[in-house]
Amino acid sequence: MTRLKKTGPSRRRLRAQTLHPWINTLAATAALVFSWLTYSALPPDEPDTEVSLPRVIKVRWHESLTSVFIQPTVSTRFDTKNVEMINDVELSLRSDNTFGSPAMTPRFNWEDTVQWIFREDRNAVWWEFLSDPGPFTVTQEEIHQPFIRFTAEEWRLAPGRYTGNLTVYRASHREPLRKPFCLVLSHDAITDLVRNKDNNFPDEFRSDIPEAAKDGCYHQYE
């Protein structure tokens, strides 16, 4: 009598068939993780631009023109495929005591960009014209710190606290970057501004002096 052999897959073949889907799944997962790591290592398409305010703001009053000098730092921490273009910078100041009174809400214009030199004949730091307002690019290797002079006509200086914004506009039409701050003009500060109106060097207002520790505002530095 002949005994029939059982037909069907062997244990080894069954084990291989069982492992096959798992191997494919693991391979697909590994490929996905590798792709994600590769993509995350690439520089982003758009720069992550940042704006920082300086510790010093300079103010000068001459005849009916008020000048405010601010040197922001515009930078990006990461390398990117594209270059960020800054096409405008605006300054706004509003008195907290006037409910938007036109006489105390100045309208500032980006007048020019300046540079500072030391005048030995006057033993003082002097400013002079550097360039007209204009766009500039920001990359990881090229940090910009333009010393911008903003001017306002017919601003009636009054003592009090002023809320300000420095707004940086980008050519990419992404949301503008706004840096809020506050400035305190005391009676003594305004007296000094009027007294020094014929001098070319402005008064300094700082955010790192004891008075500023109370409210975080820029206060006159004497």
Ordered list of secondary-structure elements with their pairings:
Layout lengths: L10 H31 L7 E4 L3 E7 L2 E6 L2 E4 L7 E12 L13 E11 L4 E8 L4 E3 L8 E7 L6 E11 L6 E9 L1 H9 L7 E4 L5 H4 L3 E2 L2
Antiparallel strand pairs: 1-4, 2-3, 2-12, 3-9, 5-8, 5-10, 6-7, 6-9, 10-11, 12-13
User: What is the alpha-carbon Rg in Å?
Assistant: 31 Å
Give the low-pLDDT segments.
33-44
Shape: elongated
* First and last CA, distance: 118 Å
**What would the average pLDDT be, to the nearest integer?**
82
Number of strands: 13
- So how many helices? 3
Beta-strand percentage range: 35-45%
Structural class: alpha+beta
H/E series:
HEEEEEEEEEEEHEHE
Characterization of the model:
It is a single chain. The chain is α+β, with helices and mostly antiparallel strands and 222 residues long. Helix content is 20%, strand content 40%. The strands form three sheets. A seven-stranded antiparallel beta sheet has the order 7-6-9-3-2-12-13, covered by helices on one side. A four-stranded antiparallel beta sheet has the order 8-5-10-11. A two-stranded antiparallel ribbon has the order 1-4. Strand 6 (109-119) and strand 7 form a beta hairpin. The longest helix is centred in the first third of the chain and has 31 residues, at 11-41.
